[in-house]
Amino acid sequence: MRTDPLTKAGRHFMRTVWAFCQVRGLLEEGIACSMQIKARLITLDILSPKQKREYEIYQRMMYAMPKLEERLCLGSDDDLGHTADLGVVVDWLVPSGASATPQLSRHSKANHGFYHYWTGKLLCPVGLDWEDPKIQEELRSGTTIVSGEYWPAFIYKDYTCDENNIWKGLFQSDILVKVVCTIVSLGSQKATKSCNAVIHNMTSVTIPLLAYIATQVMFSQNDVATDSETFYNLIISLLNNPDEKNDVDALLNWWNG
Q1: In which domain of life is the source organism classified (predicted)?
Q2: Who's near 117: CB < 8 A, 6+ residues apart?
Q3: Could you give phi then psi for residue 162, rounded to 5 degrees?
């Protein structure tokens, strides 16, 4: 079956603009605001910072999906559904030469999260020693609760955080690189059809894309109560912080160099 072009555009919007936006509310408020602006009843100047941000996202959605309004009038509520199949990540969790016992499933997260050695190792918050049996038990039992405000080991190169330089290797892990390449088909020599990067004119890795990828990897391997939206927003906030500009620029240069 051919994928609906609008569905493809919706997936791309989530990857490159905002992964956790409340689509229905965003559309309702965006359309109302747009109509009032066109009727000269209001101006952008009177909107609050939050309203301006949401209207900007709405406009970017309209640009990405020019036939969206027409489809909303004629279609169903499922027109903006989107999914992300990252089951392939399982193949990259276990280092070469090592074995996974029990085997990790692509289709079920029943033994993922902190319940499996390899997924637990990568999801373990930096600063905690996963090799300590007591830490493993506390994470598995919920005695130690992991929220979206903790950095998991898998976002670091070699899955290790340098406490003296938290930017060293941040968002440069092998898993993140492989997932980015899989989703946007960067550098693929075997593609038989246009990849996402070509279809949507993606020319570089961006902050929203990095946040989306990291959150999807977290979600696809984690079956415990982790706040994915908090994790996503934390990444967006950090990478858009003016005080971190030099490090962020260096990170984006690393990805796009």
Answers
A1: Eukaryota
A2: 100
A3: -85, 110
- Does this model's pTM top 0.70? no
Cβ contact 216:231 at 8 Å:
no
CB 19 within 8 A of CB 215: yes
What lies within 8 Å, CB to CB, of 199 at 6+ separation is: 8, 12
In total, the chain counts a number of residues equal to 257
Q: State the DSSP string of the chain.
A: -PPPHHHHHHHHHHHHT-TT--HHHHHHHHHHHHHHHHTTS--GGGS-HHHHHHHHHHHHHHHH-TTHHHHHHHS-GGGG------GGGGGGTSPTT---SSPPPSS--TT-GGGSHHHHHHHSBTTS-TTSHHHHHHHHHTSS---TTSPBGGGBGGG--BTTBTTTTBT--HHHHHHHHHHH-TT-SS-SS--HHHHTT--S--HHHHHHHHHHHHHHH--S---HHHHHHHHHHHHT-GGGHHHHHHHHHHHH-
In the chain the first and final C-alpha atoms are separated, in Å, by: 37
pLDDT per position as a tens digit, 189-241: 333 333 444 334 556 788 888 888 888 787 665 545 457 778 888 998 999 99
CA-CA distance, 239 to 93, in Å (whole number)? Answer: 26
User: Whole-angstrom Cα distance, residue 105 to residue 126?
Assistant: 25
Q: Which residues of 217-233 are buried (b: 16+ CB within 10 A; e: fewer)?
A: bbbbbbbbebebeebbb
Tokens representing residue 36 in the block: 């009032």
